[in-house]
Amino acid sequence: MSAAAQGARADQAEPLDGLRDAIAQMFAAERRLRSRESAPGELTHAHIRSLRALSEGPLTAGQLARSAELNPASVTAMLDHLEEAGIVERTRSTTDRRVCNVALTDSGRKLLSDKTERWRAMWADRLGAYSEAELEVAERIARDVAEMLDAITAQRQKAAAA
């Protein structure tokens, strides 16, 4: 690393520490939200991620698990719950009977739309004062942090496999 880059990094130490602390606080708040997230009959974050993935069209349970970043073992039980509530429907593939496709019902689409609008309103209420440019920077930072954390995870997995 060049001396200029080291100097710039030294000047950024305090703001980077503040950002790291704020992101850790955000992760902790999300964990707290998830731990208390669902009253009986309410949708969890995992449900919403699944419904959002299904809003693009039918998926198999495996595709849904990957798309919504869920544990495949938990998807079947979740789909049982959502199907019982009339939010999704499962149908056997006409070309391969081993494959079951999952799709949103009209009720599921309406539920997702309502939930999405409530979340958008909450985000707009809380973050609407920021400019588009500020929000774009925040998005870039959040994506960079996610990539950095994924890279660390990949390094750890590689080291564990060695």
Strand order of the largest sheet: 1-3-2
Structural class: mainly alpha
- CATH architecture type of the largest domain: Orthogonal Bundle
**SS strand fraction:** 5-15%
Envelope shape: globular
Determine the CATH superfamily of the largest domain: Winged helix-like DNA-binding domain superfamily/Winged helix DNA-binding domain
The biggest beta sheet is recorded as: 3 strands, antiparallel
Report on the structure:
By secondary structure, the protein is mostly helical. It folds into 3 domains: 1-36; 41-128, Arc Repressor Mutant, subunit A (Orthogonal Bundle), CATH 1.10.10.10; 130-162. The chain is 71% helix and 7% strand. It is built from 6 helices and 3 strands. The protein has helices spanning 3-35, 45-54, 61-67, 72-84, 106-127, 132-161, and strands at residues 59-60, 88-92, 100-104. A 3-stranded antiparallel sheet has the order 1-3-2. A hairpin with a 7-residue loop joins strand 2 (88-92) and strand 3 (100-104). It is globular, with a radius of gyration of 20 Å. It starts with a helix and ends with a helix.
Give a brief description:
The chain contains 6 helices and 3 strands; from the N terminus they run H-H-E-H-H-E-E-H-H. It has 162 residues and is mostly helical. It is globular.
Question: Can you give keywords for this protein?
Answer:
6 helices; 162 residues; Arc Repressor Mutant, subunit A; globular; 3 strands; 3 domains; three-stranded antiparallel β-sheet; 71% helix; mainly alpha
